[in-house]
Amino acid sequence: MCKLDVDKYFANNREWVKTVLGENQDYFQEIKEGQQPKALLLGCSDSRVSPTTVLGTELGELFIHRNIANVVSHSDLNFLSVMQYAVESLEVRDIIVYGHYGCGGIKAAYENKNNGLIDNWLANIKDVIRHYNAELKAIEDEEDRLKRLVELNVLEQIANIKQTSVYRDALDKGLQIRLHAWVFDFSTGIVHDLKKKYNIIPAVH
């Protein structure tokens, strides 16, 4: 088990502040005024897939919610509240579901072993497995099968967003909410846009 190097993080923070202020003396005054994020991003809690690092975003660009395996659960009031605040208060019009290959939550759901409390959460992914069981079984290589399950999970979470009251209310008000399905591959560092890869998700729903 790695020990947390607290001094390292505080030193990094101070160095970052120095660098930022060297480029823009008003930076912190500007972000203090409020946030206007360009998108809501639902990502996985995995420590290797930090969206701000991978996508090179600045503070204030992304409104981010993370959970195990980037799941949209209709009983998860935490995410639904985040989504409502993003759409209704921050006027966000783009929502990204950001999965990643090599996801431990996806693998645990696929292996279907007893993992304790987390199995209740993984049931959301097991539903995806049941829904696409024939397609997944047709893939001979297990690694390829798990990669496809990661993609299918992202696409299913897009479908789940469409069923939320927040999304449907936004459409009723004439708002255009653009949904994006992305998958990060930490073996290459590349983020894949599933819409372009499979040409199956229109840009605007």
SSE diagram, text form:
Layout: H1 6-23, H2 27-32, E1 39-44, H3 51-55, E2 62-67, H4 77-89, E3 94-100, H5 104-111, H6 118-131, H7 133-137, H8 142-162, H9 165-172, E4 178-185, E5 190-193, H10 194-198
Parallel strand pairs: 1-2, 1-3, 3-4
Antiparallel strand pairs: 4-5
Question: Could you name the key traits of this structure?
Answer:
205 residues, five-stranded mixed sheet, 5 strands, 50% helix, 15% strand, globular
Description:
- By secondary structure, the chain is an alpha/beta fold.
- The chain folds into 2 domains: 1-34, no CATH class; 35-198, Carbonic anhydrase (Beta-carbonic Anhydrase, Chain A, 3-Layer(aba) Sandwich).
- It contains 10 helices and 5 strands, in the order ααβαβαβαααααββα.
- It has helices spanning 6-23, 27-32, 51-55, 77-89, 104-111, 118-131, 133-137, 142-162, 165-172, 194-198, and strands spanning 39-44, 62-67, 94-100, 178-185, 190-193.
- It has a 5-stranded mixed β-sheet with strand order 2-1-3-4-5.
- Strand 1 (39-44), helix 3 (51-55) and strand 2 form a beta-alpha-beta unit.
- Helix 5 crosses helix 6.
- The longest helix has 21 residues, at 142-162.
- The radius of gyration is 19 Å and the shape is globular.
- It starts with 5 loop residues before the first helix and ends in a 7-residue tail after the last helix.
